[in-house]
Structure prediction request, 223 residues.
Amino acid sequence: MMNAWLPPWLGLTLATVFGVIVIVHLYHVLVLTGRQRLWHSVHVLMATGMIIMFAPTGRLVVWNVAGAAVFAAAAVTLAGLLVRQHAHGHHLGTLWLIATVDLAAMVYMFAMTDVRLLWLTVALAAWFIIQATGWTTARLYTTLARGGLGDPPPNRPTTSASTPTPTESTANQPHPGLATHLHHGTAHRNLIRATLAMMSIGMAYMLIAMQFGTASMPGMPGM
Prediction:
């Protein structure tokens, strides 16, 4: 069944946009390390899931089940990692909470062929619209990134014998986190913010389209 909110041309256009988002974040997965790599990996996964949902090729029930399972596993895994980091006294930052909620929202989107709750759809769509607005604010993005993507420092004894020399101090400093590529320039920061904003807008639209544009039939053929 065709989705009145997602004609083939629009689905193809949005799938292409998410393809670009995958490329941008995949590049960062390849060149970064630690928490930064994990954070961008989460966005590669989400953008890939959105390509599957937007591509006007028709989706089988297996995609819905597999997609929900994959994103549920990712959300639980990420939440577990965050709890573990918190237990070790490491600062997590708001970015990780946002990513966990986003993964949970992906689970709901893949499950919407069977379960649709109007209140939840509206709440999640509003969440993503607020996100999109927030990502357009450069200062907010920079603050959240600096507070959440820096790798925790290694646990080393604080004794006089272990005090590093100036050379060692410079070489062995903890990874400065997103500050490493926040300083690549305004154009780079704007590119990342643009991908995050577009992802949020696309996810909000998909939620609304699936809630109001399709009948309650498994598999959602035509999407």
